[in-house]
Amino acid sequence: MQFKVNEIFFSIQGEGSRAGRPCLFIRLTGCPLRCSYCDTAYAFTEGEFMTLEAILGQVKERLGPPQQGPNAPFVELTGGEPLAHPQAPVLLQELLDLGYEVALETAGSHAISGVPKEVVKIVDRKTPGSGESARWLEANLQHLVPGQDELKFVLADEADYEWSKTWCAERRLFERFDILFSPVWGKLDIRWLAEKIIADQLPVRFQLQLHKLVWEPTQRGV
Ligand code: SF4
Q: pLDDT tens digits for 103-158?
């Protein structure tokens, strides 16, 4: 079994409820979406084929034995769109079997029903501002684990904020999942978003992409 891998790198998780934690990222090549603000277009085609065994070998070498506790390094499968690889659930299960905490970043455009339940799914619900909101599979909501999985909204403008707020409220999602509201880097004013969330007393997590604050926003491998 082989996967086209764009990069494997160790860094600090910049997003989501695990922001700030050490993390080994496996970025698979390929994505059928073309979001207007995509910051990983280099992952559309660039990469080398690696066997499942070679990927697992790198993970073990770079992370060492699994560590326990809330600050332990974990593994995240990302892309591109990792679920565009039909065998991605196998890779995720193998990573779990090694004893690591495993997270998956996906756009929700592919079925997550085959993803192992224990994998923390961070599902990026594309907003109208992305140009790809119609790719969403509504059935994916049934396969998210309350209290574990996360829904992320990357907001391009004020209209995206209102749309996301309504979309979550209609489905009573605020009560069940971590909801992350993040601005498109360099597009939506971050203070406007923070103050809007405060003014509305909206029960979401405001988040920035930490790695873009620490390093150059276009830097790869961080
Ligand atoms: S889903 Fe992610 S990788 Fe694919 S185009 Fe959108 S932002 Fe880029």
A: 999 999 999 999 999 999 999 999 999 999 999 999 999 999 999 999 999 999 99
| pLDDT of 209 | 87
Domain membership of residue 194 (yes or no) is yes
Residue pair 28/79 in contact (Cβ under 8 Å)? The answer is yes
What is the extent of the structural domain holding 95? 2-214
Q: Which residues of the chain have pLDDT under 70?
A: none
Query: 202 CA to middle of ligand 1, Å?
Result: 26
Q: Does residue 34 belong to any structural domain of this protein?
A: yes
Is residue 33 included in any domain, yes or no? Answer: yes
What does the pLDDT read at residue 221? Answer: 84
Report the nearest-CA residue for atom 5 of ligand 1: 34
Sheet holding 74-78, edge to edge: 48-51, 2-12, 22-28, 74-78, 102-106, 120-124, 150-155, 178-183, 205-206
- Domain of 189: which CATH number? 3.20.20.70
Ligand 1: which residues within 6 Å by Cβ?
Answer: 31, 33-35, 38, 40, 79-81, 107
CA dist 37 → 19, 154, 184 (Å): 21, 9, 7
Q: What domain count does the chain have?
A: 1
Q: Is residue 116 situated within a structural domain?
A: yes
How far is the centre of ligand 1, averaged over its atoms, from the C-alpha of 199 (Å)?
Answer: 30
Pocket test for ligand 1, best of 46, 81, 124, 218 (most atoms within 8 A of CB): 81
